[in-house]
């Protein structure tokens, strides 16, 4: 079975057709710059273009960096505030002419990692954290997703964890790997004290450089880098879209 996966991020909107049995891309990945402002209407136009580019006439899974309940986007931490309360599913279905399932970006990345990556065959409580512009979280209990956890916004030392433990913070504040690794560690140690997971999977583009910061992470929980990297959002979205067909 194939589905179109689309990953809406702060800087790029990416799509590819995915073979949902293997998690492999069937086509090249198409990336289009995220319009600024990234209003629902402007973003929907781009998703419409991506769907048309692939001449796609079936289910689409689409990620957003927001809490999503029944197709409605409820938050907008790192995207245009116009998404708050927007009927994302209807807007994207209209723009593409296809049935669309909308889900949180970290939930999509988690679905992909659990099915094809670092979380394969892992039971118990698995927490996937994506460290990028924001911190995305997804939780799986015995392989089943608990959606819309927003564990990236835990308050640590009086500040949202995103202020110190994102890859954006590392770059913008010029943290060394050691400084940043310690911030990530503080975040993960706090999180493990709250939820006692069996496994942490660290995703986001920076996870390919895990050897640079994993040595500074002192939590007790087993920790591994994600395996699907920048394909995870698209693949997880496509897998989620299977619910529509
Ligand atoms: C948002 C989450 C999102 C994460 C990663 C956070 O700021 O609140 O919904 O999953 O960034 O994009």
Quickly describe the structure.
Strand 12 (155-156) and strand 13 form a beta hairpin.
Gross morphology is globular
Total individual domains: 2
Structural class: alpha/beta
Low-confidence stretches: none
Mind telling me the C-alpha Rg?
A: 17 Å
Query: Order of SSEs, N→C?
Result: EEEEHEEEHEHEEEEEHHHEHEH
Q: Using the coordinates above, name the CATH class of the largest domain.
A: Alpha Beta
**CATH topology description of the largest domain:** Nucleotidyltransferase, domain 5
Measured between the Cα atoms of the first and last residue, the distance is: 9 Å
Helix fraction bin? 25-40%
Hetero groups bound?
beta-D-glucopyranose
Strand tally, please? 15
If you had to describe this structure to a student in words, what would you say it looks like?
This protein is of the alpha/beta class and 245 residues long. The protein has two domains: 120 residues, 2-Layer Sandwich (Nucleotidyltransferase, domain 5), CATH 3.30.420; 107 residues, ATPase, nucleotide binding domain (Nucleotidyltransferase, domain 5, 2-Layer Sandwich). 32% of the residues lie in helices and 27% in strands. It has eight helices and 15 strands. Strands 1, 2, 3, 4, 5 and 8 form a six-stranded mixed sheet that branches. A five-stranded mixed sheet has the order 11-10-9-14-15, covered by helices on one side. A two-stranded antiparallel ribbon has the order 6-7. Strand 14, helix 7 and strand 15 form a beta-alpha-beta unit. Helix 1 runs parallel beside helix 2 and helix 3 packs across helix 8. The longest helix has 19 residues. The protein is globular, with a radius of gyration of 17 Å. The termini are close together. The mean pLDDT is 97. Beta-D-glucopyranose binds next to helix 3. The site of beta-D-glucopyranose has 15 residues, from helix 3.
